[in-house]
Amino acid sequence: MNGLTDSFPTSRSRIPLWLRLIGYELRKSLRGPVVPALCAAFLLLNVFVMLTANAFPLRGEIKMLSGIAEKYGIRTEEPGYTQLQADYRSGMEHLNEIAVEKEGVTYEHAADFWAAQSGKAAGSTASDPTDSTDALPPDPSTVPPSHPSVLSNPTTVLPDSNPQNNGFGVPYTEEELDEFYLTAVMEWYAVTPDTEAFYRNLDVQNYAEFQIGKFGLSGSAADVIREQYAKLDERTEEIVSSGDHGALFFPGPMYKMHSLLFKTMLGFLIFESLLLTVLVTGTIAKYEFEQRTAAVVYATRRGRRTAADKLLASLSASFLLTAGLCAVTLLIFFGIYDYGGLWNAPISSYFNMELDFPYLTWTPLTVRTYLLSALVLIAVVQLIFAALSFVLSGFLKNSYYVFAGFALCYGLFVMLPSIVPRDASFWIYSMFTPFYLILNPHGLFMGAGTLLYEGKEWITLSVWSGMIGFAVLLGLKRFGRQNL
Amino acid sequence: MRVILHEIRHIFRPGTLILLLAFNLLFYWMYLGFYFQHFPNGRPSMDTYDIQLKMVERFGSRMDAEEFQVFKAEYEQRKLVADERIAGDPEFAKYGFHNYEQYQTRAGENPFSELDEHIDFSLSSDPNTLGSLFWELQSREWMIEAYEGGGEAELIQWRALESSPAVLETVQRRIDDGSMTSIQSDTAVRYYLDVLQYSSLLALVSVLLITVPLFLRDRHNGLIQLQYASATGRRLFGKKIAAALCSAFLVLSVQLAVLAVLFSQKNIDVFYHIKLHSYLNFWPVSWFDLTFIQYIMLTIAAVYIVCLLAVLVTALLSSVVPNYMAIIGSLAMLVVVFVYWGRQPLITDLTTINYDRLTQPLLYGGLMLVISGTLIFRWRREKASDIVG
């Protein structure tokens, strides 16, 4: 309190009172070691997660790939792609020239070269590379592309700095191996499998039935799922005709960059900003009661209307903290993992697929637009959480019960679908909560799993914003007359 | 003493009790309930478990070389049954299978889905179906293989992890002195470890929940001046901590009682007095030759110690932080650290050769030393602290 009295300015009255009050509320809650220390701890945790990710040792290859995207473009229909294929062929010729000279063999594919080298490194008897003349082009849908897996396989010895002993026991210099590796990466994209056929043959309805069987759905719940998957089928056609299906992307099965960025990183960010939001809101809302200034503050001329200032302060704090945490974390993330030419790569690309079903977005989204949309969604969800905690604070005695109440709310809403009968479409709608929405940040805006409903994001957010807005108004009104 | 009792009553005020109960129920519903409802979890776990129960009944806690021959003969008998049934089954003839071995060598191949349906591998299939018989044979096969392997697989595994010579020596000694021939159930031990993993988290968060407001609430309510002017005075600090420890002990014991009842519903007590180290049980491999029940007791003691230490940390925090935000924030980090880095060495992997023999004594000793040191420091400060401000 003593910190506040000296900071009440007399000459700053041009700033409206409500705005000044919001500023003071923010200072009361964000000042001091608590919030900055928490933010710092969260940032440390996020950096730790980035540095221990599976893709971290592969970031050099990731940079190589985004470099290719920058140089040749990402779409097969662009002229850059023809150039890439030509460069790949000359790279292959060069590889074979050197291979003949040093090993006396030729390779059909760069992938075969790497498979043979790693076989030698592992000490096993490599199959004669000349046998593989009828080898199929690498097919990322069945196995991870063989060349990156060669390098990322922990038992494989990576080439070290000494060319005489490069770990493979073969007479290639490090520069040559680097070059061949680039050729192998280009091959993965140049000798591309028939992605169009894959998308056209995608048995979407089969996935619908799989989901229905998995969760034991029936009745209208199953109908909604079928109907949505039928829509997804149409959407797949659109994706193919737009050419998004064949666009270059980080090889999904190998690097799992979509999961790393949107599931792991955004997942951590969501729960960290949630914690900050609820803590700060609880503190702001219950401040006067906990510091025993309620009798003074609520007896002033502004009186109980300060509750509205506190609400706005909570919302701004939530937004500022979420934005700050996300901004710093993602800056570090993109410093480590270079997306380069792939910022505009479509999420629905075949190459982004990590398991057996591609990420099919309902609207054409690129990495950039997906990230921005997800961030906007996260910010709005946090505002809803701030408002919800604020409403809870009207009923609960201190900020401790507010945090606990929010946590219980969270648990109940997440468990809601497991108590709702599975034969009515309400089962689907019971997942339309902000709590459920943020559980799978890598599956937003797309058709996947049971929560694939087109437009579920904006439906959920607008309905909940409306409900919470109404509840907040009621809460403020109630607070105006409440017995303190 | 009376003051402590009052404080305990103060800790268990209705709001906190409701919160505690709601949290426990929700946690049980979200995580723990699954393990109690699904034991043994699926196949071949349930088949393996049934066989192991019968093994203990027949052979006792160990299976020596003679008994192993009996066990193998049993397998051959069951295999004959399978052979007969396959030979007389036209569905199998379609694929050219006339005995179990033919089927078994090619069962991994893909296009037999119709045959698979005919066999009925499903969870609920009758004990008389071919599916159940095949699951049983499969379970018996790996058990026989594990016994005949004589621990070679374990050694290879530990070598691959680049274990220290002490680890390899321990594993080798267990193999040599025959202690690996005990009949311990992997299914039962895994069940306990799964339950332990979640219930230790439940216990920790529960005791944190009740301790958080310990000092903070009094300060928010402006009680400090009154308390310090009373006869008990500043000794209240110690009494409140004692009350928090007693309350936490109470909560932990109630939880333990409930969980023990739920846990013992599945009669796994057959395995309690059998040594953990067994060819049939992969985990945990301990530095000491413990029985299952000894390991259970040890881990329960560990949960108590960790939780009571956490109560002390929370009480300390509660006495210094300015508001609930600070204490909840720091405890949230503490729980994250516990889940990711603390739970394994402190509780679930106790005395296992995953960690050096000295790791856990040092870890516990260090934690106790640091926490009690801070507590003493804080107590001294409390005696002389200024109450204004």
TrEMBL record, chain A:
Residues 124-133, 153-165 have a biased composition (Polar residues). Residues 137-147 have a biased composition (Pro residues). The keyword Ribonucleoprotein does not apply. The chain crosses the membrane at residues 34-56, 311-337, 370-393, 400-420, 426-446, 458-476. The keyword Transmembrane applies. Signal peptide: none annotated. Residues 121-165 are annotated as: Disordered. Keywords: Membrane, Transmembrane, Transmembrane helix. This is ABC transporter permease.
UniProtKB/TrEMBL annotation, chain B:
The chain crosses the membrane at residues 12-31, 195-216, 241-263, 292-317, 324-342, 362-379. The keyword Membrane applies. It comes from the Bacteria. It comes from Saccharibacillus kuerlensis. Keywords: Membrane, Transmembrane, Transmembrane helix. This is ABC-2 family transporter protein. The lineage of its organism: Bacteria, Bacillati, Bacillota, Bacilli, Bacillales.
